Amino acid sequence: MRRIVLPLLALPALAAAQGYNMPTSYDAGEVARDPEAAKIGIEQRLGQPVMAHANFRDDTGKPVKLSDLLGKRPILLLPIFYTCTGACNLELTGVVDALNQSSALKVGRDFDIVALGIHPKETPEMAKNKKMLTLRTLKGKTDTGAWRFLTGDTESTRAVTDSLGFKYTYDEGKDRVNHPAAIMVITPKGTISSYILGARYTSTQLQGYLTIAAKEEVGQKAKTILLGCVHLDPVTGKRSIVIENVLRLFGVVTLFSMAVWFGALTGKRWWERRGS
Description:
By secondary structure, the protein is of the alpha+beta class.
C-alpha cells in the first residue's frame, strides 16, 4: 500500500518540478472581479472570420499569412507561446495524445495544425525547437509541413487574437504572458467554427469538431471553464494561478490517496488487536 500511496502524494511536487507554479485557490467569480483578470479570457466569436492577412514567419523563418494556409482543410489553431511550461505544453500534449489514440485523424490529410506564438520576443528558431520536441512524441509518420509554428510582432498577433476573441496580456517588465487555454477550429474558408476550451481532448472529440468545420459549418458554443497560465494579484504581486484545474485534480488525488492509506493502516491495527 505504501508504495502505491506515496507516488500519488508526490504528484503536486512533481508538478512543481516540471515548472508549474503552485496556485492560490481562486473561484471563477473571484478571478472575474480582479481588474487584471478581466483582460484575460475567451469571447467566443463563432461564425466570424479569422484575421487572415497579418504577417508572420513560420518555423523555417519563411514569411507567411494565415490566408496562405487556408483553403484546403480545417485548421486547429493554438494561440500559445513556445517557452511556456504550463497550459501551452498541456494543449500541445493533449492534441498529440488525441492523435496517438486513433489512426482515424491524419494531420495534412484531414486538417492542419497552426501554433500561433503570442510572445512578442520569441523567434522562428524557438518555434522550430518546439515543433521538433512536439513531433518527437507523435506516434507514426506525419506530414511535418502541415504543422506550422508561427511567430510575429505584437500588431500582427493581436490582429489575429482579437478576431478570435482570445484575450491575453503581456507584462514586458516581467516578460510574462497571461493567457487562457483554448484551441480554435477554423474552416477551410477561414470561419471560426468551434472553440475547444481546456487542454485535454479525445480523438473522437477532435474528429467531431473537424467534421463540422470541413463542411463550413459552425458548432455550438463551448462551456466556459477556467484554465490557463495566469499570474495575478495587483496588491502583493505574489499570488498566481497556473493551470488551476489540473492542480486541483492533484489535490483531489492526494486527499483520496491519504484517506485510503489511513483506512488501510487503521484496518490493519484493528485486525492486529483483534487477533491478539
